[in-house]
Amino acid sequence: MGERRASTNRAGKGGDRRIGRRALLVGGAAAAAGTAVLARDELGRLWWRVPGIEKPREPGVVDFADARWVAASDANWRRADRPDDFGIDMVIVHVTQGSFDSAVRAFQDPGHQAATHYIVGQDGRVTQMIRELDVAYHAGNRGYNERSIGIEHEGFVDRPQDLTDEMYEASARLTARICARYDIPVDRKHIIGHIEVPGTDHTDPGPHWDWDRYMKLVRRARTATA
User: Against a cut of 0.70, is the pTM above it?
Assistant: First the structure.
């Protein structure tokens, strides 16, 4: 729209000036308040990074009700405040290339330098080792780590028999809950395999991972959750 035509009488001009000054004052106050809110939110996200201060957390709390808690080594993840500091919009599927117990031991080893948030066993059990609000070192790509939840699955990529019904169903329920919590679309753009992460040299979840089946299970579980 074009500029509003100015009034031709003196009273009108004075009125416009008064309105303009008032609008400026009100607008300035609103902008200042908005800036204060942004500053407060930023401080809320950053205060726990001050040396000697940690964000309060309850030990052993899990983000998925069916999971049991086993803590990963602090060396395999970094503390964060997601989704406030990093938005979560992706789930990344992995396969352990080993047993359930060996994956747990690896993630508890500070020298391993990697871990996922969850491990799903062939029997359907789910163990959480890193809180979802924290950044796990699982994708081999910093940006993807910051915006994703990582889920390991017990087995080997060249053994289709390792990918059991119980595993698919438990993992699908877990992924559906994650998608519901962060409003992540249930599609292959936002639920991906480790092999699809840019720069990775991993091939999991491998050629035997049934994406069509898995996505159907996730959608069904997501609908039930909704």
Answer: yes
